[in-house]
Amino acid sequence: MECTIKWVDGMSFRAETGSGHLINMDGAPDAGGRNLAPRPMELMLAGAGGCTAFDVVLILKRGRQDIRDCAVRLEADRADTDPKVFTRIRFHYTVTGKNLKPESVERAIHLSAEKYCSASIMLGKTAEITHEWTIVEAE
């Protein structure tokens, strides 16, 4: 895996991923940025959310669960002093489907958290991570 970061101007940067995708990043105005794109730490949080959502959907589909939607809301706290690592991250999943088995949803989230989601497992080295979920019955 690789990624190249190029300074654009001010505090704006553009990442080009190994798969050829571009991601813009910018700093907060109080740090010289113009707030034109996400901050790098926001992208780390989004990456962890995407990683676990991918796992949960795939695990439930493979388990023949009729999943229709999956959303993950993450809330994170950071250290007050440098390095301002994540110290606590709360994951809340909203999983929608027809007749989803609660034990299957719980298992999928547990497998992601403990085995498959490299991003959240890595962030768990500095942050206390909690997981909650809600199941919504699809119409």
TrEMBL record:
TM region(s), chain numbering: none
Pfam families: OsmC (PF02566)
InterPro entries tied to this protein: KH_dom-like_a/b, OsmC/Ohr_fam, OsmC/Ohrsf
Gene3D superfamilies for the chain: 2.20.25.10, 3.30.300.20
PANTHER family listed in its UniProt record: PROTEIN YHFA
Protein name per the record: Peroxiredoxin
Upper classification of the organism: Bacteria, Pseudomonadati, Pseudomonadota, Betaproteobacteria, Rhodocyclales
